[in-house]
Amino acid sequence: MTTSRNVNYVGMFKVAGLLSLILVIGSFIMFFTKGLNYGVDFRGGVEIQVKFNQKVELSELREIMKVGQVPLSQLQSIGDDSSNEFLLKLESDKGDLNAVSNQVNTVLTGKYGEGKFEILKNDIVGPKAGAELRTSAFKALMWAILAIMIYLALRFDYKFAPGAIAALIHDVTIIIGAFILTQKEFSLQIVAALLAIIGYSVNDTVVIYDRVREIETMHPHLSTVETINRALNETMSRTIITSLTVLGVSVVMLVWGGSVIHDFFFAMTIGVILGVYSTIFIAIPMTAFYEKMTSKKAA
Amino acid sequence: MAKGWWVRFSVLAIFVIASVMAVTPTFFNLKQESSFPVKSKINLGLDLQGGLYMVLGIDFNKVYRDEIVGYARKAQATLKDVGIDSTIGTLDASDVSDPKHTIILTKESDREAAKDKLREFYNYPLRLTQDEGVTLQYGLGRDFIREIEDTALSKSIEVIRNRIDEFGVTEPEIVSQGRDRIVVQLPGVKDISRAKDLIGRTAKLEFKFVNDEIPLATLNEWLDKVKKAGIEYKKGERWSDYVRAINTHLVSDLPKGFEIAFSKTVNKNTNVVTNLEPYLVEAGSSLTGEELQEATVRIDQQQNRPYVGLEFKPQGAKIFEEITGANTGKRLAIVLDGNVYSAPVVQGRIAGGSAQITLGAGDYNATMMEARDLALVLRAGALPVELVFEEQRVVGPSLGADAIDKAQMAALVGSFLVLSFMCFYYKLSGVIATVTIVLNVLFTLSCLILVGATLSLPGIAGIALTVGMAVDGNILIYERIREEMRAGMTPFEAVRTGFEKAFWAIADANITTALAGICLLNFGTGPVRGFAVTLLIGICTTVYTSYFVSKVLFEKYVGDGSKKTLSI
Questions:
Q1: Which residues of B touch A44 (CB under 8 A)?
Q2: Exposed (0-12), middle (13-18) or buried (19+): which is A76, by Cβ within 10 Å?
């Protein structure tokens, strides 16, 4: 791959910025209207994953739970038809979660007999723990972003920080938007994925900032826009190769990694794409934009 | 060759040998008696091997209540000793986290003297909250409350550990989280409901004398009154809350210092209470499970029925002898977790410090099982507090196995794709990159084993992420070297400049990711922590392998500078 091309990335900032703004605002609107499908981690309640040795229909299972007076709030099948695997979510506000969870076991044993099914997973999260997990996850995200911002401001120049942070918030918001849109479950694992994406996206941005700074010292006569475009063009081959390799791994894990880590890599895959996009079209050009704004004010 | 190359190479060689040794037990099934110096295998998270993860919250409120009641009694006794007459007043638990208790003096003129005396004796545990007329009201001292919490937390962990040990779990993890939480992890536990039961049973043992002056009919009358007032046991509610509500409602009827407790019979299959028998027992107790030395299952030869035999510690034996002597003819209720187990009549002074708990009649095997569990719970120590299950996660072993297989396969396929791409795109240099990346994973795994960290599924994702960053580190360096060679540098110079210029890009990128990792470590719980730990370890190994190890290998490759071309 050559680096002789000279693409004006900064010039695309307005179009890209508008597109991103629409996506971010869209995500925000969905967040407040449709809302996230919080997993048991954050919502509190009971989640049971069960696998049967025999053919069981979704409607049949729903009927059994209804007859057994299990406070079922959601029932879905997992995997393909032949796996006979189901995820049951039970309401969180009705009495003792432990008892409710045992009730499912009793009802299933009564209907199908012992050994005919296997409880693969049984999560019980009290409402208090759920609320606390939500706050601590949110705090972790905020602190991560803040710490990165401070580091960037110290290591580089304050002018780099707003772009990087805007890109991070952009990435995180749109991924959350994707989770709202698909109504995939938002769990602790996804928070871990978001933090990984933050790390990855910043990694991408920092590499290019590094080059911007280097060009600035070597060619002080270049304008900011020229410097930034040059840095982006020079590092483009690295950006493409790295993103493709990481994306490759992420997609492989998404497709063949199994149900447990599926959602994690769903977030990662979107995040990798967003991370590269936001680095090239948001974070770096925004530095030029930010400098233009501040210099105008000064003038 | 650059200065100090052999030194750096030797360090690398030592790391490699040590790491290979560290991971050997994990990947090869070594025999128990093998003489291999490293024994520890990697800890797999519960999501990978199945098991039980629990977060238990500690309810301190009952502890505060018990302490203040106990100290009110002691204070009254102390006053009596110095000749000040008083009676024990009432408990005010309207603020559950700071309950208060009153002592009513017989003469108002004693007030100052009583206050002084109590300050002298109980300055630390008691805090005067009100004094008016003949009434002195005390709460628990602030520092004392903190001490109670600390002791209760560490004692609870100890007790849970004892119980788990008796249950026979390999490598359980029981740690505190914050001031009022305990996290229990039991990898590989299959009989989950029994384990949960064992931990969850607070098994607080108390001995309380029964007030038989008030006939059963009166008790039932009171309970009818409670029922009429709409206080009923609702399914899912905690039993102890219900009993507390009854006692609060009846506070004006109950004789001072006594409360209602129940002996209840529960149908094991349906979990429905089949029989309830009320008792009027002392509100505090003079003897608790703390004084217990030993609890064993024994068989009553005459009736062929199992029972639990108790032996007290010397101090407890003394108290037991004293109170049985002073209360001959009365019934002594054995109260476990607030429920009356049995209430035998004290026939006379019991010396020697033994007692027994007989269990309800029924199926021999069921009684035997109950006796064994009860003895186990008592022997392993009584929990000083009530525990609330805040979070429970159970992973069946087959889900874990399936998850490992799939994730492992996908990780292998992904790595293979990336590494073959590197070899294809960067040729011989790509092979060097491949070597460093394989070393990276090796180092990460061996570090995890050495620090005893747990590898969970998010942890594997963390490794995948660091591998991605390691690849990126190599790409950064290689692209830089290519760039410099295009600009006309010789391979020797290009390699040197490439490493030099790429260093800060790699360092900055990894430090920022590490910052995110540290935030995760501080705020995350359970699975998220596992991700953070592997991520942080992975970052260290990444910087080392993709920069320093690459450099060592490259210096060997380009040699002394006479080379004209570079396979990159």
A1: none
A2: exposed
Q: What is the pLDDT of residue B13?
A: 92
Looking at CA atoms only, how far is residue B514 from chain A in angstroms? 8
The answer on B104 and B27 residing in a single domain is: no
How close is the nearest chain B Cα to the Cα of A46, in Å?
9
* Residue B393 distance to chain A (closest CA, Å): 4
C-alpha count within 13 angstroms, C-beta hemisphere, residue A116: 13
The rounded mean pLDDT for chain B is 81
CATH code of the domain occupying A45-125: 3.30.70.260
Q: How far is A41 from chain B (nearest CA, A)?
A: 9
Tell me, yes or no, whether B445 and B338 share the same domain: no
Q: Is B361 helix (H, G, I), strand (E, B) or coil?
A: coil
Average pLDDT over residues B477-501: 88
| Mean pLDDT, residues B26-45 | 75
The CA distance from A121 to A138, in Å, is 26
Whether the per-residue pLDDT at A28 is higher than 90: the answer is: yes
Instruction: Encode pLDDT of B501-518 as tens digits.
Output: 888 888 888 888 888 888
Kindly report, residue by residue over A229-284, the tens digit of the pLDDT: 889 998 888 888 888 888 888 898 888 888 777 888 899 899 999 999 998 888 88
Question: B351 and B406 share a domain?
Answer: no
Q: Stretch A111-126: mean pLDDT, rounded? A: 82
pLDDT over 70 (residue B266)? no
- Same domain? For B128 and B12 the reply is no
Interface of A with B in 157-176 (CB under 8 A): none
Q: What is the pLDDT of residue A93?
A: 63
To the nearest 10°, the Cα dihedral for B395, B398, B402, B407?
30
pTM of the model: 0.70
Nearest of A99, A56, A243, A276 to residue B270 by alpha carbon: A99
CB contact under 8 A, B406 and A258: yes
Helical spans, DSSP H, in B51-110: 61-81
- Cβ proximity of B39 and B21 under 8 Å: no
Domain A10-39+129-298, CATH homologous superfamily name and number = Multidrug efflux transporter AcrB transmembrane domain (1.20.1640.10)
Query: Does A1 score more than 60 pLDDT?
Result: no
Closest Cα partner for B268 from B194, B340, B195, B358? B194
Taking an 8 Å cut-off on Cβ atoms, the answer to whether B504 and A192 are in contact is: no
Token reading at B520: 């995760």
**B338-364 mean pLDDT:** 76
Task: Determine the Cα–Cα distance for residues A247 and B502; give it in Å rounded to an integer.
Answer: 22
Answer whether B468 sits within 8 Å of A192, measured CB to CB. no
Q: Are strands B126-132 and B173-177 parallel, antiparallel or unpaired?
A: unpaired
The Cα angle at residue A30 between residues A25 and A34, in degrees rounded to 5: 170
Asked if the model's pLDDT at residue B392 lies above 60, the reply is yes
- The answer to whether position B185 is within a domain reads no
For A205, the closest chain B residue by CA position comes to B509
Mean pLDDT score, A168-179: 93
- Residue B235 has what pLDDT? 56
**Domain end: B354, B370, B393, which one?**
B393
Give just the sign of the alpha carbon dihedral B428, B434, B436, B442: negative
Q: Are residues B460 and B428 in the same domain?
A: yes
A93 in contact with chain B, both atoms CB, cutoff 8 A: no
Task: Report the C-alpha gap between B565 and B558 in whole angstroms.
Answer: 9
| Cross-chain residue pair B389–A126, CB shorter than 8 Å | yes
